[in-house]
Amino acid sequence: MNLFNIFDQIMQVDPEFDERVSPRRRAIRNMMSFGKKVSIAAMPFVLSDLFKRAYGQAPTDVNGVLNYALTLEYLEAEYYTKGAAASNLVPSGKPAGAIATIRNHEVAHVAFLKQVLGEKAVSKPIFDFTAGGAFPNVFSNYDTFLALAQAFEDTGVRAYKGQAGLLKGNQVVLTAALQIHSAEARHASHIRQMRKARGGAAADQKPWITGANDSGIGAAVDPVYAGEDNKVQADVDITMLPGIGGKISTAAATQSFDEPLSASAVLDIAKLFIK
After folding, report:
1. Coil, helix or strand for 207?
2. What's the CA gap between 4 and 156, in Å, rounded?
């Protein structure tokens, strides 16, 4: 979910992170060429090797960053694992295949972080995917399951926003992180299209976020979409662009950009689902 954000957070607590990683680029490239498309399932283990080479034993502050990310990855991995295993929840065929693929990606992210952290890894929390009773049928109603999956994936995409510029001096890490980011964005889009295919209340669902909350499952997930109703970019109101002012709707303007979420905001969202 937030592997891209990990590197920014680590550079804040360990300014020498770039120097630790940069001399090892050739070794990483020899292990797997980043000039070719790399399987997203394999990517976490490539990054695991990167961290092992950068740190013999990671400093305590870096462990804190990685454990923050691990907590979030635990959440997504368990959610899709429970969903895939729930009786008569996910229809067979393409829907079951899609959920299984996303589950495998998230499980791989957990494995990567646990491998890096070793005995310093935090234990998996006890999750309450009903969010205190807000979603009592999350594992018995397929539409609710997809809607909450959408909220989780949208959280991940927003958490990645704006980090690329901070990683541009670290080409190996940037390449790996962007590939993972791309996979998370595809997860979000695909879940949304799965909801649209269901019709009903989600018939008008777009592959991207519209406004401050387009989940259709109420205020419980409002924190996921806080700020997504912004229509001003670079001090320009998108709905009033010169020459086409008034021709771009507010909805279309909000669809054009994913707004960033801070680490604290993402963690607050995760806490909604932790007992």
Report:
1. coil
2. 10
Structure tokens at 5: 């954000």
Number of H helices, E strands in the chain: 12, 2
Closest CA to 82 of 163, 146, 139: 139
* Closest residue by Cα to residue 186 from 105, 262, 129: 105
| Residue ranges in 161-271 assigned as alpha helix (H) | 164-167, 171-198, 222-225, 250-255, 263-271
pLDDT per position as a tens digit, 212-265:
999 999 999 999 999 999 999 888 899 988 877 678 899 999 988 888 777 778
Work out whether the CA dihedral 35, 36, 42, 44 comes out positive or negative: positive
Distance linking the first and last C-alpha atoms of the chain: 20
What's the chain's length in residues?
Answer: 275
pTM for this prediction: 0.74
SS3 98: helix
- Determine contact, residues 150/192, Cβ cutoff 8 Å: yes
